[in-house]
Every structure is written in structure tokens, then in C-alpha cells.
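B., you asked whether I could sanity-check this one before it goes into the benchmark set. Here's the sequence:
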Amino acid sequence: MVEFTVSGIKTLSRQAACTGLVMLLTACFQAGRSEAPRIEGEGTKFHPGHYVFTQISRSYPPAERNARRISFIQAYLDEPAIRGFVAHMEWRVLEPEQGKYNLQPVADILRTLEGTDKQFGLYIRDRNFGGDCKSAPVPAYLKQGGEFGKSYKHAGVTCMVELYKPAVMDRKIALYRALGEAFDSHPNFEMITDGETAIGGTGDFSHQQWLTQLKRFYTEAKQAFPHTMVLMQVNFLGNGSRMLDELAAHMAQVGGGALGLPDMVPCRRRDLPEEDVCGYSIPGYDTLRKYRGVLSVSPNAETWDLRYDETDEVMSMALDYLGADHVYWSSAFSSRRDKAPGKPSDYLTEQVLPAIKKVEGRINSACPEALKPCLSD
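And here's what the prediction gave me:
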């Protein structure tokens, strides 16, 4: 039996309480206001534009962190350059115990956006990065061994769980089902995503095994989110882009999806001479370019490998090289290649917003074939 908690109310399974979680959440969203329109029929919500991550420190307790996310959103609701917002939420916050889901943080953000022209994307954090990471940000039951394996540290910098194993992927699929039942039909819920394809594993790991689970996951996730873009972060998988292309082809067949990746680094473009590449190029760029016009192209502009003042180059890379229809910008600057001249949080107002306004909000807005019919304003 699956248990959900929203606004202090619990409903057990889909038959209890309001005959379904979606109805219960609608009541919680409205809190005395008229009911918001709901998405029905066929199609994928598609609102192209420039989105911003609500980057709030994980040092805050979950409730305070979400309150700060909402304050950030409220401060930019009237900013026309911003089409929407994306929030990182840890898997363990959304599923504190096995099969028990706390969807309140998402519901509170959507309530804030109702009646506005802003959209929301949810980025589920299923791994931590950094040499000092201790374990994956997932529910405790996934890290205790047994059928779900354990948390492990890959290459000394990535703490995660064995998602390439069917039993663990089943639990991520269950989380998506709970979220989809609650939010797929909400008009402001634009996109859902989680960690990138670039992983390694324990002794029995193989890239083919991981690809099989990624394809299975995407099929199940789209059943849970028939009206919402499911975004796959495709940067590396095996050697080159062959496996990434195979995953993208599967997504195009299923429909309703988006391709993205964590980083847009101009000096890692695939069309550069080898001597001009900084360290390595990223195969996922080829896959995004190959499938633009078929799937949504929705890259992140995370800053970890950027220089502070190359925002215009990143913009050109997003719009012209990759053909992006959604771009997810960082709101604070943190890089191993450069330092912010002032406060890291000034990055949004000093770099990102001016860059968006410089191109007059330009974005690739044509509806991709595998998303049709696109549901837009």
C-alpha cells in the first residue's frame, strides 16, 4: 500500500479519501480559491523559454529550504525574461520511508505559480557530487544492502546507489508514479528529471545493463507523466554517442520527452579542433543536435566548468549550436575554473538576466515532433 502526505492529510492508495491523490492535492492547492484548469486529452505541456534554478543551500532543513525557494520564486514572478523555475529536491525528502511520499514541497511551489505565466520543473537529486560526499541523498532503505544494494562512491566524487539494478530502478519508477498521479495534469508542471547518464558501478556494472534500465525507466516514467516532459540528462554512456543515440531513439518512439545534460561548456563542443578542447568533449552534444526537432532540447547551464564572463558564449551554444527550446540557468555561480568577482548569488542579475535580455528572450519555439500535440499557452 502506498501512503501520501500532503498538508498533514494522509491518503492510503488511490481509492481512499478523495478517491485519488490528484483530487486530494487539488483541494490542497486551492485552499479556498477556485479550481485551476487541469490538463486533459492528448499532448505534452511545452512552454519554451529561459528557466532558472532556485539554488538554495542544502544546509537548511527541508521545510526552510522550500520556504526559501518560494521566496526566491516570488521575487521573480514579474520578471518577463524568466519563463519558469526549477528546484532540486532530494529523493529522501520526497520519499522519507519506503512507499511513503511527502509531496508537500512540490505542491507548495505549484500553489505559488497558479494563475501566473510561470512554469515549474522538478529535478530529483539521486546522487551527490564532491570528494567529501558521504552517501547518496536517497531514502535509507536503499542504502542498507540486501535486495536494493548499497550506496557507493564512484571515481572518488559521486555518491549514489545502484540504479542500474532492476530492484532499485523499480523504486525510482514508484516515486515517479506517485509524483505523476499528483502533478501530471497540473498546467504549471512542465518537466521532471533526475541524474545524468554518466555513472559507473560496482563489480557487476555494465553500460549495456544501465542502458536497458534507462530505457525501461523512460517508458514507465512517461506512463506516469503522459502530459509532462520527462527529461533525460544524456552526457556520457559507454564510448562516444552510440548508446546515447539508442536511448534518444527509444524516447522518440515512446514520445513526450526531452534531452538535456548538466553542462554547456563552450570549450567542450564537439566541433572544435582537438587542440582547442579543454580536457574532453562531451558526446551528449552530438545526441542533442541529432534529435533537435524530434525531442525537446533542454540543457542546463550549470557553472561548475564555466568562466564567470562567458555567459554570452553559453547562450549562443544553447540556442545556435544545440538548438535548445528550454534552457535551465544557474542562479548562483560556483566554478572550479573561475571565481565570481562579487557575491555568487549576483550571477543571476549580473550575467544571466542581461544575457537573456540581450537576445530579447530568443528561444527555439517550434513543437518537436515527438511531443505533438504541444500544449502551450
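One thing to flag: The chain has two domains: 1-35, 46-375. Otherwise nothing jumped out at me.
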